[in-house]
DNA sequence: CATGAATGAGACTTCATTCAT
DNA sequence: AATGAATGAAGTCTCATTCAT
């Protein structure tokens, strides 16, 4: 596709990373082949090896960078929020949704290609993932201790929330009907108050009576997983 | 692994389906190869073709059967519940979680291997999936019209709920600390009332103060993509 | 080259072995490629893998079979000879030359492709090779103890003799001027009595005065190759 | 291994030659790759081409230099010896063994990588090799004519002697139990008188009765081929 | 219904070599 | 004289699939 002629040096490496993210997201790591990746970048398959170690190594690098960025973004968000349980929780959830809207392909890959990592490579990625989850669990427990949250089981609640919020990756498309802020707001409400809506606050007006006000239909794989962009 | 030697006749076909579900779930469709599948069943690769049409055809069959079962289960659950919005919604959500607990491998495959289907095969599967989603959207809208739900956007809410509830596939293991009923109950609460817990009803006692009461940590691949990052 | 059409089953495996011996002998293991090998056999490259495990595995099998045959032939020769030092020594040397005339390609491979074996594969081959050498060393020592041989160092002498006798592989071609028996006889003389010819016995008449009576010139690999197995 | 960083100028060319000899000897020409060679020298693969023409050209150069040196050494040895058949023969054989002890890697390459030379490059090398062999054949014939040698066939005898004496390359290691002079002496005896020891002269005392007085066992690939140094 | 062997395409990766900088 | 990136060919091996037995 996009032939980047004259691409030299460091540009090629970046082009490979970007094309790889696109292709892995679209087809899955196992189904992506290096011929295709090279063609996207505009070089010969063998030339990839000036920039990557192996196909497996490429996946690992992509996932590592992604997890580091995610952790950094999360820490920054928490640092910027008031130091009290509910504010911290809201900050965590909001940044999670935002990050997932902005980098949904990387997110998708990080979620679904863990099984494609060799055990030695999976280990550090899993460690970072646990660090992220444990942060949320800690916030939920703090909120519960403060009497501001009702969580029967913090771990289950954390997993459920993350699954819900991560779900936006499966249908969001930039430039769609809803802007990021609105999507973030609605998910915060759902996370905190559920659909029954005994919410805590600034709830958006209920527009459901007027029809489902559809976002684009999920073309492919709604929840969990599937699709791409 | 489990070599079923001497498996003859009709049993072979069933053994193939089961092994395929296991392998696709574990490795993904593209990464599964028919050598491996045949070995699991205890036959030679060529012999698979007495029972399947192609690798692609096998995937399609598995997904079609799964979607039919899911739709049947959902219809049966709704038929068995009182015909009023909240009861119907609870019935839908509860059966969804239950079904996902019981058949998490098929669910996973159905969610994440859609991209592996050839377009002609994807179409009927997508149609069934839409039928399922639309049922939930309808219930949410009915609840909103009846004034019992607060949903800003029924479609977004439906996707978010499905993502959350489908997430159980990624960590649930039969025989774990929590039984299916409890998991269903907690997720119903989260879906209806969120973590802030301004719930509507039979809420389980808050045990979070006593620590996170952990389920087993997701050991491998949270799968489906759960959260992560 | 020689396309063996309709070659099925067991015949293919044998054809592969033979072609591999020919090609490895001609080009070396590293320089032989499986495309070429497959073409010689008349099948597709991938089809080789119905009969071999890997390229490396093929080499190992060839060498193992060769060494086993060599050891068997040696033991048989010794068993058939009178049980006294010089007769045993003569039997060993004669069978060595004969075996090397008849299977010079395998011998060559066994000598020169040891370095191409992975360490784990080299080990058992080396063990067999030592067994063979030690037999000769033992015979030389026995002859010396009996006062029938003059060897300053049995190991050095053994290596030197094996190198000399193995050398026939480098120039011998069936159907040449000299028959196997004559070649064996001359080498026995050289081994036992050297060129100065203070021999022990049935020495062939000296024909060197009449010109060098050339065998074919060594086309490829002259001396170099020392001993075999 | 030995990275010679900052190797500049003319030194690089020499470093390449030395590293190439080491690598070709260890692995064979086909199995050696230029990446590895460059790494040994401490430069990038592309930089090799400032010093060599091609991989093939490098091999040819190494072999040509070696053969020229060998021929020179032989001529010098003959010139320094008394001009009578047996003295000339002894001089030839002694210098052959000595040269092979001192430059066994080059010798090995010259013997076994002839097949890796393109025909056009092989031709001049083969011519030099024939020149060397013919010298020995001439000496054997002269000795026979003088009645001092018993050779049934001078060419066969020459090949057998060269094979035997060249064999030292396969097990000799500098600093081992036996010094070069002793190795030369023993091989002269074996060449002239064989193991039966009806020798002509200054024979070393027979020490074989006291056990085999072993040199180090050939650790790796004794013979023919394999190993390096 | 199972097998064993074959196919043909294609996968990842290596490698000698070139060339602008 | 060295570098880093590119090439293009080729190498080993895998895989879905076919088919005679």
TrEMBL record, chains A, B, C, D:
Domain HTH tetR-type: 10-70
Keyword Transcription: yes
Keywords: DNA-binding, Transcription, Transcription regulation
Coiled coil, from the record: none
Region feature (Disordered): 203-229
Source organism, top-level taxon: Bacteria
InterPro entries: Homeodomain-like_sf, HTH-type_TetR-like_transc_reg, HTH_TetR, KstR2_TetR_C, Tet_transcr_reg_TetR-rel_C_sf
Pfam families in the cross-refs: TetR_C_24, TetR_N
DNA-binding region: 33-52
Official protein name in the record: TetR/AcrR family transcriptional regulator
Keyword Transcription regulation included in the entry's annotation: yes
